[in-house]
Amino acid sequence: MTPILSVRQVAKRYGQRYGCREVSFDLYPGEVLCIVGESGSGKSTLLSTLAGKLAADEGEVTFRDVNGTEHDLLTLAEADRRRLARTEWGFVTQHARDGLRMNVSAGANVSERLMALGQRHYGELRATAGEWLEKVEISAERLDDRPSQFSGGMQQRLQIARNLVTKPRLVFMDEPTGGLDVSVQARFLDLLRRLVHETGIAVIMVTHDLGVARLLAHRTLVMQQGRVVEAGLTDQILDDPQHPYTQLLVSSILQA
Amino acid sequence: MNIEYNYGFLDENTKRMLRRGLLKAVAIPGYQVPFGSREMPLPYGWGTGGIQVTASIIGEADTLKVIDQGADDTTNAVNIRRFFGRVAQVQTTEKTGEATVIQTRHRIPETALQAGQVVVFQVPEPEPLRTLESSEVETRQLHAHQEYGLMHVKLYEDIARYGHIATSYDYPVMVNGRYLTSPSPIPKFDNPKLHQSPALLLFGAGREKRLYAIPPYTDVESLAFDDHPFDVQTWDSHCALCGSTESYLDEIITDDAGSRMFVCSDTDYCATHQQEAKQ
């Protein structure tokens, strides 16, 4: 199997300081990769760099699209990058208001990417949007309600629907469970696990919650001060951490 | 005190800048060209963009017609006409057929436009995506990459809320299959007149400092959904004055007991029609 995303020695500088540096990994189709680390460790910088929202300063990022064509994301033309972002990628943000249009209905939010791809049949758009709301456990009756009328958990699930409606192959997630309480978080993670399993998408998720990594991730990268200090299978990292920082991180979880 | 103004009120360098902008606008139909909008002797929202465009293209051989909501006799129209009569010594007219330059706010005349005529539109908001995307940086990117899915979000929202596309004026159009463009706040009734128009259509937004154009015989398509096609307003009644069934009608309330009548919004068209009926 060939990786969908290959990252080699990627670095992002803010002035003289490095936001993240010397990051390398491969991501395979259907795989969930968690990036964990404390605040300021460079995990969100890394995610934005990989998604093309920030320009990387060093390294190489190669993405393989659905036809197997390789794209070098660091030198990719803006038009091509936006096309990939519309068709092959999704981006789920921590705050729903950054990822949703709060002043239009849930149906319009879900349909936006379809319309961007040229679908022009209102009835079909609406039917698809309804199906996706049901898939993320929101009643299709809420189709015409605005996201501002939704709870935090529902907003996050709506973001998922909005991104997955065009069947992307790679979804970036930036602390999607950040603002949710534990029971809502659990349902959200359950849903996410099911959707990832059903659709076979690859996910790169940034989180500071090791519990989320434990539940979802096949593999985990641990970051500290902009560098990856440990990488491997999630269970291996959480059960047998090697690096002192990972040991500290794992030991700071309260054992219930 | 008697002040001497330069011909057409604006100084020659400003007119040259405007003409350069207009040439670019005509070369790239529907593309918004920035320009250095000047202070004009009327407030923003009264046609500062339109008046600058008119000032830069007008010459002594021209005949000017100015309409506001279709009417030749409103304050705005009368004053702009008088202004150019004074600073450009042009002939003015109320007849659509006789005019070479027609400055308009919110309407296109009912009488079919001819080749050689120029229509100047006053535009309050040149960016059709503005209500959905407040960032100018972002909307320019969307135009550059021709990402116009967002506009359909608005139309989708209309149908979801009202059951039909409720946008009835400033209805977004695709110009020459490339640029999403605001037709200025004309009623969507007038949108079909933009398509393959024999006249040159120029748009000026004074406050937003943008020029754009639709050259003669350019394709202009109003956006729609496959199952909710574009349509224009229709009325059950005809014009109470001239009897026309083909023009855009204004509803006028005639007393405080709920009486009302529908009359043509285009005063020149209505008057011509009434005279024809008399003969």
UniProtKB/TrEMBL annotation, chain A:
Boundaries of every ABC transporter domain copy: 5-250
Highest taxon, organism lineage: Bacteria
Keywords assigned by UniProt, alphabetized: ATP-binding, Cell membrane, Lyase, Membrane, Nucleotide-binding, Transport
GO molecular function: lyase activity
A UniProt-annotated Pfam family: oligo_HPY
NCBIfam families xrefs: CP_lyasePhnK
PANTHER family cross-referenced by the UniProt entry: PHOSPHONATES UTILIZATION ATP-BINDING PROTEIN PHNK-RELATED (PTHR42764)
Entry protein name: Phosphonate C-P lyase system protein PhnK
Name of the gene encoding the protein in the UniProt record: phnK
Automatic annotation (TrEMBL), chain B:
Function: Catalyzes the breakage of the C-P bond in alpha-D-ribose 1-methylphosphonate 5-phosphate (PRPn) forming alpha-D-ribose.
Organism of derivation: Crenobacter oryzisoli
Keyword annotations from UniProtKB, A to Z: 4Fe-4S, Iron, Iron-sulfur, Lyase, Metal-binding, S-adenosyl-L-methionine
Catalytic activity: alpha-D-ribose 1-methylphosphonate 5-phosphate + AH2 + S-adenosyl-L-methionine = alpha-D-ribose 1,2-cyclic phosphate 5-phosphate + methane + 5'-deoxyadenosine + L-methionine + A + H(+)
Lineage: Bacteria, Pseudomonadati, Pseudomonadota, Betaproteobacteria, Neisseriales
Family that this chain belongs to: Belongs to the PhnJ family.
Keyword Iron-sulfur attached: yes
Pfam family, one: PhnJ
Keyword set includes Metal-binding: yes
Name the record gives this protein: Alpha-D-ribose 1-methylphosphonate 5-phosphate C-P lyase
InterPro entries, A to Z: PhnJ
Top-level taxon: Bacteria
Entry EC no(s): 4.7.1.1
